[in-house]
Amino acid sequence: MTDESVFLSIIIPARNEQENIESTLDGLIPQVNPEQTEIIVVNDHSDDKTVSLVEKLATRCGMIKLVHNNDAPGFANALKTGFRHATGEYVLPMMADSCDDPRTIPLMLEKARQGYDLVCGCRYARHGGKKGGPKIQGFFSRFVGVSLHFLTRIPTLDASNAFKMYRRSIVASMELLEKGFAVSMEAALRFYHSGCSICDVPTIWRGREKGKSKFKISRTFPYVKLYFYALFYHGYFNSRARV
What we know:
- By secondary structure, this protein is an alpha/beta fold.
- It has one domain: Spore Coat Polysaccharide Biosynthesis Protein SpsA, Chain A.
- It contains eight helices and nine strands.
- Helix 5 packs parallel to helix 8.
- It starts with 7 loop residues before the first strand and ends in an 11-residue tail after the last helix.
């Protein structure tokens, strides 16, 4: 596979995911075209067997690449590391704990090929859903996504979901300021305020079954900030720069 043939770069930030990374990749690989896809696993300062497991998988599957986040640990820096290594026309972050449904990817690719700049995996669209996970997290994400859609007219019901397919040339030109998981909501709002075309496809999210959840109530605060910026300070999302 040459870089010129890559249409989709899937980016999987992984920190201490030895219990999940193999099953995540095993579920993902059948859903993509190996001639047009690269899978970039970003080691985010793991101290378990995540790296060695991915290295073994990469020897068996040419789509898989392992890169390392050499910046401070965290989802946003791992994601940006993946963006820098990606060569596809589109980039798609996926969680390493199998919470994102890889069967959604063909639907997302169909919309990308129709020309959309941002295709959002939506848990709150018809036929979408959210199963498991902390109840407070589910209530909060639904409220944020649905209310933002009606109050700002952003064309997604799930702005906070990380499972989104971005046109790489656009997301690589943006200055993303958030340090944690809220970077996904920030990116969606920047796409919207830049006039990009956005759509939803339904997806099913499932709470992790193995390993320790990364959710903490304190991680909702950046989403609250972005929510109010979206309502009252639109100019915040108009800045553009290299990641």
